[in-house]
Amino acid sequence: MNKYAIQLKNISKAYQDGEQNKIVLNNISLDVRPGEFVAIVGPSGSGKSTLLSIAGALLSADKGDIIIGNQTILEKKQWNEFRRRRVGFIFQNHQLLPYLKVYDQLFLNTKKTSEKKTLAEEILNELELIDMKKRYPEGLSGGEKQRVAIARAFMNEPDVILADEPTASLDKIRGRAVIELIAKEVKKRKKAAIMVTHDERILDLVDTIYQLEDGVLIKIMK
């Protein structure tokens, strides 16, 4: 039994930049346990979002492996099913559909079974969204929309949560509230979470911090 929820093993990625081959990720490895909330920081253009996209099977690495639990993701034909069942995404832009009410947003990638309906009510309660479940996105604040995105990410009970700059469009108070909610759900539901961020104001809420720069990932705090 693998003690890690997600492992990135020797991940490398390079892009062609004119006549040069620019190395963005250079033999990077990262292990995250269930219930662990990891933040990756670094300058713009350092490859943070590229690494997150590879972890979530949205982008292929030039070299290396992604292991979720005991499953190594090898072929692109596995990617859609892998993302649907094993990964929950929280993006900078909440990406809610304007024509769906809050409650229905949670069922975009899962069927409305009795178990899932119960889970939806539970998560909406925990994120203080239960009174808003019949609202459309246009009737929500920025922080409320991001909370709906968090709820949706946990609905398929994934092994891993991947968050790409989830506070970028929020002010300090709302941004911190959003990260507090992610941290709470990660601990309660024993999920692994990886967040890339520029927001140093919320780093005290995570368990481990890594710096990504010049293609190298270094742990700077635990």
From TrEMBL:
- Please report the stretch or stretches of sequence annotated as the ABC transporter domain: 6-220
Q: Which GO terms describe its molecular function?
A: ATP binding; ATP hydrolysis activity
Taxonomic superkingdom? Bacteria
User: Which SUPFAM superfamilies does the record cross-reference, listed alphabetically?
Assistant: P-loop containing nucleoside triphosphate hydrolases (SSF52540)
Which InterPro entries does its entry note? AAA+_ATPase, ABC_transporter-like_ATP-bd, ABC_transporter-like_CS, MacB-like_ATP-bd, P-loop_NTPase
Q: Which family does it belong to?
A: Belongs to the ABC transporter superfamily.
Name by which UniProt lists this protein: ABC transporter related protein
Species: Ruminiclostridium papyrosolvens DSM 2782
